[in-house]
Amino acid sequence: MDLVMPDGAEFTFWFDGNGKITLKGRPFSNPKANAFSIVQVKDCPYATETCMSVCYVHKLEKAESGVHEKYRQNSVSIRRIVCNPAYARYAAIAFAKWAKERCKDGFRWHVSGDIFSLEYALFIRHVCMLSPEVFFWIYTRSFPFIEPLLGVSNLVVNLSADKDNWKEAKRTHEKYGFRLCYLTVEGEVPPDLPVGSVIFPSHELRGRNLLRPTDVHWWQTLTKEQRQMVCPPDFFGQSENLRCGVCKKCLIK
Question: Apex CA 154: angle with CA 60 and CA 189, to 5°?
């Protein structure tokens, strides 16, 4: 999306998608763009040691440098825009129009990156409010910037948690009611993970190389309730019938 501000300043934004987040109704093999991403770590001010250690965007940066360069360009542009209220208002209208025309069934904020400032959180809120017919969802560790996302009826907020930020995530959940999404790398799962939470196992914990993935040791250690919380596309493998949209664990308020 090319954007020219009233004062002549020019920006270009790039939207993309993948098979997992393409949502029901979009071909798994040919996903349409329904996400806006920036860069990992730099744009993740509350990243933890755990999430950085297994961040899938590090692999994407090496394998698809051209895609990652687009994320970097998005990062530079959106940081310039949200610092200028006039630019932010103009860009929010353009983002909302783009989403309404192409992504009414769902738009994800950040396959890569996170909310890096309060101004950016306000921008996200503005885009969502300007396009009420579009469903949005987001995962975030930026709990200090979360208040602008309260009360946005067409935005589902998921709190990204792991063993490093568990206490802060649990407090934020208890305060605002947003869903907890727990990343486990070593196999640990908090015993007080609330019903309705989602568990994301790292690659090492998935039984993808087994005839029956559920034979993997980690799965056997889970309770029945915990197994129901595990992200099916991540654990069992993504497919036409196993992806976001078909699975709604993260998509319902």
Answer: 55
- Judge contact between 124 and 134, C-beta under 8 A: no
Query: Would you say 148 and 123 are in contact if contact means Cβ atoms under 8 Å apart?
Result: no
User: Does residue 244 sit in helix, strand or coil?
Assistant: strand
What's the CA gap between 78 and 241, in Å, rounded?
A: 34
pTM equals 0.94
Buried-exposed string 213-225: b where 16+ CB fall within 10 A, e elsewhere: eeebebbeebeee
- Could you list the beta-strand ranges (E) of 107-233: 107-109, 136-140, 155-161, 179-184, 198-201
Q: What are phi and psi of 137, to 5 degrees?
A: -145, 155
Tokens of 58: 């590090």
> Per-residue pLDDT tens for 53-107?
999 888 877 888 898 999 999 999 999 999 999 999 999 999 999 999 999 889 9
Q: Cβ distance 164 to 179 under 8 Å?
A: no
CA 140 to CA 116: how far, in whole Å? 10
| The amino acid at 36 | F
Residue 25 has pLDDT above 80, yes or no: no
pLDDT at 24 over 80: no
Question: Any idea what DSSP says for residue 144?
Answer: G
- State the chain's maximal CA–CA distance in angstroms: 61
Strand arrangement of the beta sheet that strand 107-109 belongs to:
15-16, 35-36, 107-109, 136-140, 155-161, 179-184, 198-201
